[in-house]
Specification:
The complex is a heterodimer of chains A (366) and B (534). Chain A has helices at residues 2-12, 26-59, 75-103, 141-144, 236-255, 263-277, 279-282, 300-303, 306-315, 331-343, 355-365, and strands at residues 111-118, 121-126, 131-135, 162-165, 170-176, 181-185, 190-194, 200-204, 210-216, 228-234. Chain A is α+β, with helices and mostly antiparallel strands. In chain A, a hairpin with a 4-residue loop joins strand 6 and strand 7 (190-194). The longest helix of chain A is centred in the N-terminal third of the chain and has 34 residues, at 26-59. The N and C termini of chain A lie far apart (68 Å). Chain B is mostly helical and 534 residues long. Chain B has one domain (3-517): Up-down Bundle (Cytochrome C Oxidase, Chain A), CATH 1.20.210.10. In chain B, helix 3 packs parallel to helix 13 and helix 6 (205-236) packs antiparallel against helix 7. The longest helix of chain B has 36 residues, at 75-110. Classes of the chains: A alpha+beta (366), B mainly alpha (534).
Chain lengths: 366, 534
């Protein structure tokens, strides 16, 4: 049995981590210290209580000829073991209170980032900077389905990490667009629920540049286990460069709306965006996972009047998991996705939806 | 557990009773029965069936988590398994098992002829198969069964739920009605039907803890009913209790749910405290240490359970002062819980102990429940909870209080009272084997969960990074072992019902209490003339 276990573990090429890591921020280190303090207090109490019990179990047995004693109460002892734990608890509560007050002080931040949870990805918006993007899982389906070797950061890798500057107090404003999610990066000791319709605050200040990984911590539906978080901490100078590049890129993105698009270009872009945004539910094959997630292949909407198709993508379908993508995606991406859906998997509608059509549709709605 | 059938014509304990009769014949006996022993037996069998069903769902979960990658089930079904496992274990296995023990033992312990409200007793049992039939049937519907976790947080359980959620809501209502009626019955029985001389402070602790549990049930099951009713309104009648878009708040759901949910965890453990408080003195051959403080500690725990609910919600963004209040209140629970553990340890101290199966389970209960208490203490520290919350550390914590807590408490009770129920001694060797296999399997399954949780593995995920792989494999092997072992328990119980060494009226020389004054197996009707308690 032991040998079998050993072989199994060898094959699993994994580690034996048993404890929390101290993490990368002052807060995470003080949380770690708290954790270890309470742990050792519990160990000491455990050794005393279990020690007494094991001693008793070894010595006070009938098989050793022990005669039972008859005592059954002692006010002194009972007061003592009520008061002593109370004192220990107060001693534990003091440092915990200090750390908690510190964690709740999100004032004087130098950078504000809005984090929005979606089923099943994160959106990061740099407030006042005109930069926003989605962060999707990049682990390929082949790895998840055991058809390819799993990479080192299996399920903990994304296309676009959240980038923050080192040594800067960054405030997070956390919310959700659908169900409750929870944004958690262990190394930062930040875990805050993303609640639809409400905004929660949290903050961090990371000293060292590096990559820090986390996951959604609140059950949020089918792909709850597949919406990781990656935070890339850059030096202040690198961060400034990165931010400037992102601003340029987002300006360029906006211009794409007025560009003349060909069917091929839209199909190519549509396939890519469909696979990152839509395929989790409707599947890459367009066959969906009925009845929760309907098929698009041959569906009435994807092969019917184009206005209805645009409408459902832009506004979503209330009461279902179909989100309103009008606010999530650019006009270009929506146009590309719709064009793709109407012409892929044997849906041969043949028409083409341009970014301008989407813009017109949105303006008509307003 | 049903060997009372054999005793119908013996008619002992019926002196001066002119309409004595045994149980009816055939299947209708079980449908129409108002006898507390029959109903207790049905509750126990039902809960064991649910334990095996919920357990097989746990086996699916552990099989999928045996290795990284998706092998056996898809995430949709995985979520249904975690949800149903939790619901079935909480509402189908643990709670009915304690109601079954209450039905069997409370009248015997206080010298009552039956429960105070026998017809309601029958109805509260028969609601359960209906409720669970309904709940389990949702797994076969298009769109699948409940997949939002046993805590069913809105809006995942409302706007984003599968259609079967309405069946789930109705099932919860039925379970709630059943529990409330069961609880009313327990209160009415204990307060009205005690034998002359059986003052409150002479009652066995199992009766005391059940009395307090019953009040908890009456207080919080209506809250759960309100919670699911609000869900129903949101889903079908256009209200917005839990939706910010209509002026509601998803966090309101969590406040209401946990106002039910925290007392609920004590509902699942207090009766076990009571049973263990009878078992340890019996095998230590020494009276329970600190009876009075045990009663007060139980009452304090019950009171505190109402003011700590938001410690399940430290990460939802409650204000600092709220966070501090709930942290301090939660830490306070450690005091009465500590008192109980110290009392059990002192009862053992300088006793004359033997370790038959009930005692093994009882001692393991004290030690392992205390480990669950330690992790509970760690979770109470709000800043540290930000790291533990919704990780496998929490899964390890609540399985340590529920498996070696509630479930070992139930096993200890079952072995302790099986001779009284069946009239036969169970097979001691097999009983011990069942204990050790359960003990090793359970620790192997749940201890490594502390490690992966601290290392950063969230709960309720079907797949994980390789850094969690080793301990997950250990957990799965332990879980398979624990699961398989429970079939041995089934075998032991059936063997005990069918035969074995005849049990004396009082098979445990150190045991104390009225239940040991009636013959084994307990006759169909007992204490029709109340005993005198001095």
């Amino acid at each position: 049995m032991g040998l079998l276990l050993w072989l199994a573990f060898g094959a699993a090429q994994a580690e034996w981590g048993v404890n929390m890591a101290p993490g990368a921020t002052e807060v995470s280190r003080s949380v770690f210290d708290l954790h270890m303090t309470i742990f050792w207090i519990c160990v000491v109490i455990g050794v005393v209580v279990f020690g007494a019990m094991f001693w008793s179990m070894l010595i006070h047995r009938r098989s050793t000829g022990q005669e039972p004693a008859h005592f059954h109460e002692s006010t002194t002892v009972e007061i003592l073991w009520t008061v002593v734990p109370l004192v220990i608890l107060v001693l534990m509560a003091i440092p915990a209170t200090k750390t908690l007050i510190d964690i709740y002080d999100s004032s004087e931040s130098e950078l504000d980032i809005q984090i929005t949870g979606y089923q099943w990805k994160w959106q990061y918006k740099y407030l006042g900077q005109d930069v926003e993007f989605f962060s999707n899982l990049t682990t390929p389906a082949e790895q998840i389905n055991n058809k390819a070797e799993k990479g080192e950061h299996y399920l903990l890798e994304v296309d676009e990490p959240l980038v923050v500057p080192a040594g800067t107090k960054v405030r997070f404003l956390i919310t959700s667009a659908d169900v409750i999610h929870s944004w958690w990066v262990p190394a930062l000791a930040v875990k805050k629920d993303a609640i639809p319709g409400f905004v929660n605050e949290s903050w961090t200040r990371v000293d060292e540049p590096g990559l820090y990984r986390g996951q959604c911590a609140e059950l949020c539906g089918k792909d709850h286990g597949f919406m990781p978080i990656v935070v890339e901490v850059k030096t202040k100078a690198d961060f400034a460069t990165w931010l400037a590049e992102r601003k340029q890129a987002s300006a360029a993105e906006k211009e794409l709306t007025s560009k003349e698009w060909s069917q091929e270009e839209l199909m190519a872009r549509g396939e890519k965006t469909y696979n990152t945004t839509c395929a989790a539910c409707h599947q890459a094959s367009g066959e969906g996972l009925p009845p929760m997630f309907p098929a698009l292949k041959g569906s009435a909407i994807a092969t019917g009047p184009v206005e209805e198709h645009i409408g459902i993508v832009v506004n979503g379908k209330p009461g279902t998991s179909m989100a309103a993508f009008g606010k999530q995606l650019s006009e270009v991406d929506i146009a590309a996705i719709i064009t793709y859906e109407r012409n892929a998997w044997g849906n041969k509608v043949g028409d083409m939806v341009t970014p301008k059509d989407i813009l017109t549709f949105k303006q008509a709605q307003e | 557990m049903s060997a009372v059938i054999d005793t119908d014509h013996k008619g002992h304990g019926h002196a001066g009773d002119d309409h004595h009769h045994g149980p009816a014949k055939g299947l209708m006996r079980w449908v129409l029965t108002t006898n507390h022993k029959d109903i207790g037996t049905m509750y126990l069998w039902f809960s064991f069936a649910m334990f095996l069903l919920g357990g097989s769902m746990a086996m699916v979960i552990r099989a999928e988590l045996f290795q990284p990658g998706l092998q056996i089930v898809q995430p949709e079904f995985f979520n249904q398994m975690t949800t149903m496992h939790g619901l079935i274990m909480v509402f189908g296995a643990v709670m009915p098992a304690f109601v079954g023990l209450a039905n069997w033992m409370i009248p015997l312990m206080i010298g009552a002829p039956d429960m105070a409200l026998p017809r309601m007793n029958n109805f509260s049992f028969w609601l359960l198969p209906a409720a669970f039939g309904l709940l389990v049937s949702t797994l076969f519907t298009a769109g699948g069964g409940p997949n939002f976790g046993w805590t069913f947080y809105a809006p995942l359980s409302t706007t984003y739920a599968p259609e079967s959620v309405t069946f789930f809501i109705f099932a919860i209502h039925l379970m709630g009605i059943s529990s409330i009626m069961g609880a009313i019955n327990v209160v009415a029985t204990i307060l009205n039907l005690r034998a002359p001389g059986m003052t409150l402070m002479k009652m066995p602790l199992f009766v005391w803890t059940w009395l307090i549990t019953a009040f908890l049930l009456i207080a919080v099951m209506p809250v759960l009913a309100g919670c699911v009713t609000m869900m129903l309104m949101d889903i079908h009648f256009g209200t917005s209790f839990f939706s910010a878009a209509g002026g509601g708040d998803p966090v309101l759901f969590q406040h209401v749910f946990w106002f039910f949910g925290h007392p609920e965890v004590y509902i699942m453990i207090l009766p076990a405290f009571g049973a263990v408080s009878s078992i340890i003195p019996a095998f230590a051959r020494k009276p329970l240490f600190g009876y009075t403080s045990m009663v007060y500690a139980t009452a304090s725990i019950a009171f505190l359970s109402f003011i700590v609910w938001a410690h399940h919600m430290f990460t939802v963004g409650i204000p600092l002062t709220g966070e501090l209040f709930f942290m301090y209140a939660t830490l306070l629970i450690a005091v009465p819980t500590g008192v109980k553990v110290f009392n059990w340890a002192s009862t053992m101290w300088r006793g004359s102990m033997t370790f038959e199966t009930p005692m093994l389970f009882a001692v393991a209960f004290v030690i392992l429940f205390t480990i669950g208490g330690f992790s509970g203490l760690m979770l109470a520290i709000a800043p540290a909870d930000f790291q533990y919350h919704d990780t496998y550390f929490v899964v390890a914590h609540f399985h340590y209080v529920l498996v070696p807590g509630a479930i070992f408490g139930i096993f200890a009770s079952a072995y302790f009272w099986l001779p009284k129920w069946t009239g036969h001694m169970y097979d001691e060797t097999l009983g011990k084997l069942h204990f050790w296999m359960s003990f090793i399997g359970m620790n192997m399954a749940f201890f490594p969960m502390h490690f992966v949780g601290l290392a950063g593995m969230p709960r309720r995920i079907p797949d994980y990074n390789m850094m969690f792989a080793n301990f997950n494999m250990v957990s799965s092997i332990g879980a398979f072992m624990f699961g398989a072992t429970q079939l041995l328990f089934l075998f032991i119980v059936i063997k005990c019902i069918r035969g074995g060494k005849p049990a004396a009226a009082k098979p445990w020389d150190g045991a104390d209490g009225l239940e040991w004054t009636v013959p084994s197996p307990a006759p169909y009707h007992t204490f029709q003339t109340p005993p005198e308690v001095k």
